[in-house]
Amino acid sequence: MLYLGVSFADATIYGTIDAAYTSTKASVGSNTSKKTSIGATNNGNSAIGFKGSEDLGSGMKVSFQQEIGLSTDQNDATYENRNSFVGLSGGFGDIKVGRQYNIAFSNVIANDPMGFSGLNTYVAALAGNPNRTSNMILYTAPTFVPGLGVQVSKAFGETTTTNASPTKTNDSTAWGLTYTTGGLYVGTTGETVITTATEKTKNSSTTATYDFGVAKVGYGMTKTVLGAVDTKGGMFSVSAPFGPVTVWYSTGDVKASNGTAEIKTNGSQYGLNYTLSKTSYIYIQAGKVDANVSSFTSNLAANGSGYAIGLLKSF
Fold this sequence. Notes:
By secondary structure, this protein is mostly beta strands. It has a single domain (19-314), classed as Porin (Beta Barrel). 4% of the residues lie in helices and 63% in strands. It has 2 helices and 17 strands. The protein has helices at residues 103-109, 119-125, and strands at 11-28, 31-39, 47-57, 60-70, 79-90, 93-101, 132-140, 148-155, 172-181, 184-194, 200-211, 216-226, 229-242, 245-257, 262-277, 280-292, 303-314. A 16-stranded antiparallel beta barrel has the order 1-3-4-5-6-7-8-9-10-11-12-13-14-15-16-17. The protein is globular and about 55 Å long.
């Protein structure tokens, strides 16, 4: 166990408050539902966090982060433990232990103009679910080649095992390689999760983006294989700044197949951000998802559309 005591002078308090008027419509078969609400829509929802580091000398540092997701639109005391880790870094690289973004997360959001929200959340979650992982040890190697990043991780499902049931369900291992130079970013990741005593889930992601200055374009792919079910997702994105306004568009699809039947789902999303300050902006976004439903049962089998108008403030 590592005990870390810090004063407020050693820590940074930060957060994001996001509130939007949102209208959505979803349909499955002949059933259609509509909903209007006030809530977080953009860039990962509202949160408050504490982070900092302590210089140990000789190039070594101890770091920490504790982030809590918040529900700001109603008094329901909804809290979510987000990133929560302690780390040690030096010439050997960087090691973090706790709940944190898994390796695929940064690779996937590199292609999302909205910061892992909307369509990209949908595409990624149904084909790999790259987000946060609990009970994880994450190692980031030092930079040996300019622009090249290397990461590996091990997470523990904390499943009680016996002689009759030795499988460590939800244990996972992952790796990631990234390369950045100028306006180019390329990344690829892989993950293996022990699903049952006889099955493992294989997740992967590949992303490439290029910032031309006048516009940034990107394409990302995700894939999940579990037994006979193969789920693939892909998304193209483009964003362009015009003074304080940034306009963006993304389109993608997800295909799920069990070997005998297939569901194809495609979606598109577009919007704009209007910058008010370095820490505040207004946004408008809209989009839709269409599913080609077959006899194969899947949570892809839904059609939907919606729009949101919101204000995001970070601190």
